[in-house]
Design brief:
The chain is α/β, with parallel strands linked by helices and 261 residues long. The chain contains 9 helices and 7 strands; from the N terminus they run H-H-E-E-H-E-H-E-H-E-H-H-E-H-H-E. The protein has a single domain, classed as Rossmann fold, CATH 3.40.50. It has helices spanning 9-31, 34-48, 87-90, 106-111, 136-145, 168-177, 181-190, 208-216, 228-241; strands spanning 56-59, 80-83, 99-102, 121-127, 147-157, 194-207, 246-259. The protein has a 7-stranded mixed sheet, sandwiched between helices. Helix 8 runs antiparallel to helix 9. Bound molecules: S-adenosylmethionine. Residues 1, 15, 19, 59-62, 65-66, 84-86, 89, 105-107, 127-129, 132-133 line the site of S-adenosylmethionine.
């Protein structure tokens, strides 16, 4: 969710720095929300409907937090390829023969610059990673060419306008740099894949102080673009806007899937 990371080498470094800093706390951020992690893992499973031994590549896998359900259909013979440029995130993948780390960007896989051990792939999954891709149409085209017949690309991403209880500057900055899901779906269609695009939502209830800790830890990349002073001011705004002990909001995700005929 780092807006600037789409715009050049220095900002790609910033993305890497962001995830290097975040890697240690990334899973802890979700530790108190196991129902959400289970819901998301379930939704991904339900969209992909993987067959046993499908060759799956999770692009921008991070620490593999949402892979629990997909791992049920994987085996050591056809492990899930966990593709991520951040070694710090890959180092936190569970030590499991059904997961195989590949240090690379989506662009490097799409262009063939970094080879994968499967000649064809049955499913590429992007869970909150597509916004890091510089040229989405080109990358999707490259990945679509690597799909097996009936293969699919599933993208899970946030809409531009979040309903998160953040301060207005953070919401605006996020909106300014997040790719529009409808544009991603159009790019997917352009590759020739039969494309479906729908929203899925999850109702979040979170203790206000826990939410504020997440904001202070700059858990979203967009927050890491604010100075410590700006984050403190933003937290004051959140406290004013949300005097309640428990905050509720809707987390809405775009699911975009393209299937090869
Ligand atoms: C918000 S995290 C999502 C991690 C994981 N999919 C999840 O949902 O927990 C985004 C991930 O994308 C990775 N990333 C950044 N640039 C990328 C690129 N060009 N290609 C693939 N992954 C990238 C980051 O290193 C990070 O691990």
């Amino acid at each position: 969710m780092h807006p600037g990371c789409e715009k050049g080498p220095r900002v790609i470094d910033l993305t890497d720095e962001h995830y290097q800093r975040l890697a240690k706390t990334y899973e802890r951020n979700w530790a108190d929300r196991p129902e959400y992690v289970a819901w998301m893992a379930d939704r991904i499973m339900s969209w992909l409907k993987p067959a046993p031994d499908d060759r799956i590549a999770d692009i921008g896998s991070g620490t593999g937090l949402f892979l629990s359900r997909l791992m049920e259909t994987a085996s050591a013979r056809t492990p899930i390829l966990c593709v991520d440029p951040s070694q710090h995130m890959l180092d936190l993948l569970p030590d499991d023969p059904r997961l195989s780390p590949v240090r690379a960007t989506a662009e490097q896989i799409a262009s063939g610059e970094v080879p994968v051990p499967y000649e064809h792939v049955d499913a590429f999954v992007f869970k909150e990673a597509i916004h890091h891709i510089k040229d989405i149409p080109e990358t999707l085209r490259g990945l679509a060419e690597r799909l097996a017949p009936r293969g699919r690309i599933l993208i899970v991403t946030l809409p531009r306008r979040l309903e998160y209880p953040l301060f207005p500057e953070a919401l605006d900055r996020f909106a300014g740099d997040q790719p529009e899901p409808a544009d991603i779906a159009a790019a997917m269609r352009e590759t020739g894949l039969a494309t479906e695009h729908r929203s899925e939502e999850y109702a979040v209830t979170i203790d206000r102080e826990q939410w504020i800790d997440l904001v202070r830890n700059q858990w979203m990349s967009v927050l890491s673009t604010f100075t410590a002073g700006e984050i403190d001011e933003g937290i004051e705004t959140i406290r004013l806007l949300h005097p309640e002990h428990e905050i509720t909001y809707t987390d809405r995700f775009a699911f975009i899937q393209g299937v090869k005929h």
